[in-house]
Amino acid sequence: MFSKVIHNLKILPRWVIVGIDLVILAFSTLLAYLLRFNFSSSDLIKNDFEVGVLVYTLSGAIAIFITGSYRGIIRYTGIQDGVRIFYMLLINVALVCFTNLLYHYNAHHNLIPYSVIFISFLSSFLFLFNYRLLVKYFFSYYRNALKKRSNVLIYGAGQSGMITKQVIEASSNLRVVGFLEDDTNKAGKALAGSEIYFNRSKSNIEDLLVSLNVDELVITVKDLPYDRKSEIVDSCLRHQVKIRTIPPIERWVRGELSLNQIKDINIEDLLGREAIRLSNEHISRELAGKVIVVTGAAGSIGREIVFQVINYRPIKVVLIDQGESALYELERDLNASASGVAIFPYLADITNHERIDAIFEEHKPHIVFHAAAYKHVPMMEGNPSEAVLCNILGTKNLADIAVKLNIEKFVMISTDKAVNPTNVMGCSKRIAEIYVQALNNHLHKTDSRHTLFVTTRFGNVLGSNGSVIPLFKKQIQEGGPVTVTHPEITRYFMTISEACQLVLEAGAMGKGGEIFIFDMGQSIKILDLAKKMIQLSGLEPDKDVEIVFTGLREGEKLYEELLGDKENSLATHHPKIMKARVSEYAYSDINNYIELFWDLLNDRNELKMVALMKELVPEFKSNYSRYEVLDRQK
Prior knowledge:
The protein is α/β, with parallel strands linked by helices. The chain has 3 domains: 2-146, no CATH class; 150-265, NAD(P)-binding Rossmann-like Domain (Rossmann fold, 3-Layer(aba) Sandwich); 282-467 and 492-524 and 560-616, Rossmann fold (3-Layer(aba) Sandwich), CATH 3.40.50.720.
């Protein structure tokens, strides 16, 4: 019954608030007289205390209407209300002092002792502001008591954890039941009224989740190791506990954390790895004050390369892409970033020799990052001529123009699908690798100051166009089913940011002719990925969302590789970058082969085209593809 009254209680009329304030002013003045004259009733009567109380209260009424201190809604009292009350009391004191001076001028003594005025000022501010805060707390307490509150455990008992607790309890129907910490020095203590529990083991976490009846766990630790984070998430998922995380402090809005910024943890947070340490000075020397070209600039990889490159203060960055809308969005975002680096976007096809040559001639770049490519395996399996045209002949076109203009360095971005390729896309990238490496070695024999060609090879990147993760998210949002090609299929993953940082590092360290491969960590089973994504959405695999196996697509592998059967690797100074030792080709041979592709493109004979690719790359064995017939003919 009482809770219902609280829930339905309306905002008090303003005249009631004015009345309460005047009563408090009168009481504060009476208290001031009592304190000033040591609670002596005779002294109070002698000094006409009732007149003083009346004058102070009437002056307060005038000050209240001048400042409008009664307008604030008490249950939402804040700092601004306190400031308004303070100004009101200052005006009140000014009016009382003015009245006192007039009275003293005529009667030659004070109407109210100034000590009483000062004491009344302090006590009335204390009472007026605190009664408002008390009402606010009263409403907040009972309103929250009426709601069903979820129990929250905060991982991390540092400053971020304490701020998170304040935000959660001040603006939501959540209740913090404690903190979880790895630091033994903090365990057993309390922070902001909540106990800190020691995180001893996985079983200890699960026991806490059960004993504290935890509904949500918020991770506030900035550099929590990914294996530790995965362990915590797995424990939470087993007990249907929602996992959320806060952004880094530098991304808080105006330096303050809000409840809206506490987001559900996503799969990308669990597939990332430890932060990369880059030789920033080395990269800066490579890029600062240079003209940089990025092909495929509007794609997921190219876009990230552009944003990372401009941090190193090049003179200008030339953007080349054939996607009109994506290129426009990239230009707009770069202009909004106000980096101060000159940006030149060009809508162009890398296979158009005259167009690319004109762009390069105009800007005379020092370094080219070549990210333009067709990369979707099934699409290229059905359209091999486009894979050949873009990935092979487009790369050759760029490389030849780079040599012609004596560009300092050409960094090509390849893929792990170029290793022991089972599809047209992977083989086309392998042929592009072969060409730029052979061209580099050929130039090295004839010219000591030639264009340096460097290749970087890595696997799937999180959030890239065509990645399986956006597909799974969309399927889960639509209620399923989630489609997985094969129960045993695995893939390597890294974040776009990490991949592009390593591209810059490898490009800077390259001396020409290298194929750098990146440490991709452990391969991940796609089925496990799908299950975890469903669980992170608060659903149960095969109960709320069905998982369906569709079979391997054309050209698709079960397992990706970073090195071929006849390849091995050498370490570099960077622990995450290795140099692949691969079979090398004579430039004249590979150049003659590639020229043959032009004839086959004109003939529109895709079977002969793929046969030529297999001849050039003997390890290319088609998988789940109509081109398997060519392997059987050998």
